[in-house]
Amino acid sequence: MHQQLINQWRDASTKELIQFVLANFHEKHRQQLPELIQLARKVEGVHNDHPACPAGLADLLTEMSNELESHMMKEEQILFPMLAGGVYPNGPIAVMEEEHTEHDLMLKKLANLTNNGNAPRGACGSWIMLYEGTRELAEDLQQHIALENEVLFREPQAAAPEHGKDFCCGSCQ
Fold first, then answer.
1. Domain map of the chain by residue range?
2. pLDDT at residue number 76
3. Which domain of life is it from (predicted)?
4. What is the CA radius of gyration of the chain?
């Protein structure tokens, strides 16, 4: 799934890709996380005596929300305008990639806490919705990270000039 998305966007302009990331990931994460936090608090409050209760899930989702919001703001205010202008700054890109690694670690915690998004047998509708939502968030965030790391943050390679057309290595003369 990730590779298909990456291939789909590999030849797009940087500006088009930025708009896609903003609309399909940044805005979506901003909608997903508050809803998931609210559901997690509800499930944790109602089912705190159940052995499979995801104790601490609301706190983890809140931490993820805070980290993602900070990360996305840095991209939107600093990095994306630079990339759109054809500037690929190594330092800020390295920081964003490091933060992506931290997001991956949070996704692993999320998977552990939610049994990979699989609600226990007999779970209520809210619990099922919560876990479906965490699976969707995880998939979206993994796609988001892969698309940025493998396409958006890579400086486009200029086509090599053809020998004799716009370029000569010097051996012709």
1. 10-152
2. 97
3. Bacteria
4. 21
In angstroms, rounded to a whole number, what is the distance separating the alpha carbons of residues 17 and 24? 10
Give the pLDDT of residue 158. 55
Host H or E run for residue 142: helix 125-147
**How far is CA 37 from each of CA 3, 15, 43, 60, 126, rounded to the nearest angstrom?**
30, 32, 10, 9, 12
CA distances from 47 to 17, 51, 123 (A): 42, 9, 9
Residue bearing tokens 């190594």: 90
The residues facing 163 across adjacent strands are: 167
Give the containing element (helix H, strand E) for 28: helix 27-46
* pTM for this model (two decimals): 0.87
Enumerate residue ranges in the chain where pLDDT < 70. 1, 158-173
How far, in Å, are 12, 105, 121 from residue 149 at the CA level? Answer: 15, 16, 37
- Euclidean distance between CA atoms 164 and 168, whole angstroms: 5
Residue in the structure block whose two tokens are 């998977």: 111
- The Cα-based distances of 94 to 34, 89, 123 in angstroms read 28, 9, 42
Taking the CA of residue 55 as centre, how many other CA atoms within 13 Å lie in the half-sphere pointing to its CB?
5
Neighbouring residues of 63: CB distance < 8 A, sequence distance ≥ 6: 106
> Residue 148 corresponds to which amino acid?
E
Tell me the two tokens of residue 18: 């930025």
